Amino acid sequence: MTTPEPSPATSARPAASRLPAYERRILGGSALIAAPGLLAAAFMAWSSSSWREADGWVLAAAVIVTALLVRWQRRRLVYPLQSFASLLDALRLGDYSLRGRVGGALDDLVYDINALAERLQQERLQFEESSYLLGKTLAALDNAVLVFDQDTRLRLLNPAAQQLLQADRHQLFGRRAEELGLQPLLDQPSGQLLNHRFAGRSGRFEIRHAPLRTEGRGGRLLVINDVGRVLREEERQAWQRLLRVLGHEVNNSLAPIQSMAGTLATLALRDPLPEDWREDFRNGLELIGHRSGALSRFLASYSRLTRLPPPQRREVALGPLLEKVARLESRLPVTLEAGPALHLMADPDQLEQALINLVRNAAEASLPTRGGVVLRWQAKAERVSIEILDEGEGPPASDNLFVPFFTTKPGGSGIGLALVRQIAEAHDGGVSLLARTNTRGAVATLWLPRPADHP
């Protein structure tokens, strides 16, 4: 490998001669200034008819004093410049702690050099803090981050990338992307999802890369996100919630069945049987049948939730559909507020079922408080919002309202809201259940996309 030429900022200081040219110019200039006087004095002494030996000594003394004054003047001029050179050399070498002493004719220059040193010291501190923060941030990321130079040699990676490649840092630095098996990822369009096998693990990854530029040279940033692990974690949490609710519902049915079966078995072993054994057996079997039927209905609801077919979309007039849903609730009157004439592209049967479930929940919440239910709709930008407002006690404080089989109502199946959300999302919409802000009760909002060709 060839050694790169040093840049001007880092090149070595040229070797000094025995007497630098600048100092020679100072000495020469001072000598030229003193030369006319010395020559005049020598000429006058030489041309004088009364030349004495003492005059020679005076002339020699004048020459010596002039030479000393020239040397003294040179030191006065050179010493501050040497100090400035030392300060600038320290700045060049990265030592920003030295300061020049202010005083004299060069105050402005000393002040500017000191200010430059202080500014560079602050910038170095900020750079070190930013580098430390960047290092900590990269170390905390679950995404693998790698930086390559213009020759696709690896120059930076975080611990997540090291784990993904299963190698020590000194084994990875300086190696080309092709040697690491990462060149195909750099050749892919950014944002692609693909299945890939790394030394550390395999799975589904999102690949993102972008160009970089440092010190006038190009480079590449590569970010690898293991989306498979995120999806597996979400799937695990979903299964945990589902199994927790399933276990609760199944235990609610199996516990009394098991208890009653044990009671009837104990009763059947008694000899002689008690006189009212027939009634005890009948009551026990009725309880077992009731709980078995509830469990069967629960599983049937689960089957209906998992077998929801894709929506068969066609044009649906929203106003008449909401009037029909409002009339279906017979336990209390549902107030239907007037709204704009809107048409949706939706499956009318599924949309009607979702609205029936929301209106039924609102009615059940309002019955204990003798409140009312309001059904209204409106168009907002690119979507249509349908709101069902009740005057009950408000929604329970739980994040599991739309989790299948989760319910806070006695005898509830926990299917209604889950089915509503599944229908809404199948229509590219959504649903929410929040507490009302201006009064007691809850507001359920079902929103669907608004067709572009309808007003």
TrEMBL record:
EC numbers for this chain: 2.7.13.3
Annotated transmembrane regions: 26-48, 54-72
Catalysed reaction, written as an equation: ATP + protein L-histidine = ADP + protein N-phospho-L-histidine
Signal peptide: none
Domain Histidine kinase: 245-452
Gene Ontology MF annotations: ATP binding
Keywords, comma-separated and alphabetical: ATP-binding, Membrane, Nucleotide-binding, Transmembrane, Transmembrane helix
Top-level EC class as recorded in UniProt: transferase
Any single Pfam family the record assigns to this protein: HATPase_c
PANTHER family: HISTIDINE KINASE, SENSOR HISTIDINE KINASE
Protein name from the UniProt record: histidine kinase
Organism this protein belongs to: Dyella lutea
Highest classification ranks of the organism: Bacteria, Pseudomonadati, Pseudomonadota, Gammaproteobacteria, Lysobacterales
